[in-house]
Amino acid sequence: MADAAAEVRAAVAVFHELKAAVEHHLGVTSTKELVSRVIRGAAPRRGTLPGGEEYFVHGIGYTVTTRAGAPVHLDGCGGDSSCFKTWDIRSYLEDTDVSLDEIAATCGDLVAEGTLREIDDATFAFAS
After folding, report:
1. Does residue 47 register a pLDDT over 80?
2. Which residues pair with 47 in a beta bridge?
3. Is the pLDDT of residue 30 over 60?
4. Which pTM does this prediction carry?
5. Number of neighbours of residue 36 by Cβ within 10 angstroms
6. Which of 28, 45, 73, 124 lies deepest, with the highest CB count within 10 Å?
7. Burial class, 30, CB count within 10 angstroms (exposed 0-12 / middle 13-18 / buried 19+)
8. What contacts 38, CB < 8 A, 6 or more positions away?
9. In the chain, where does DSSP find H-type helix?
10. Exposed, middle or buried by CB within 10 Å (0-12, 13-18, 19+), for 110?
């Protein structure tokens, strides 16, 4: 479980870093604002971040594909929050044996530490 927790923590850190990169690159402060700007034609639906990652805005969120090809999926949820599901972390960690239960448990630890907020049993948002 210790290795699984470390993998999940690293994945959550990547999600947070890429969220910040998207927001900085596109001059927005939230997923909700980004989606709204795309719908109005004020921001591109897809593009490349300065680090080489590709992004695509869809529905209520966006997906960033890392240079290694791993998907980082975030949705807008509740105001200006950006959230992800345990399945999104699992998809990012596709080449590992980390289970959804291990992901949920580690995300629960991150909630207790103040890094994440729990939206529901399988959905989490960044605390900041």
Report:
1. yes
2. 55
3. yes
4. 0.94
5. 14
6. 124
7. middle
8. 44, 45, 57
9. 2-26, 31-39, 86-92, 100-112
10. buried
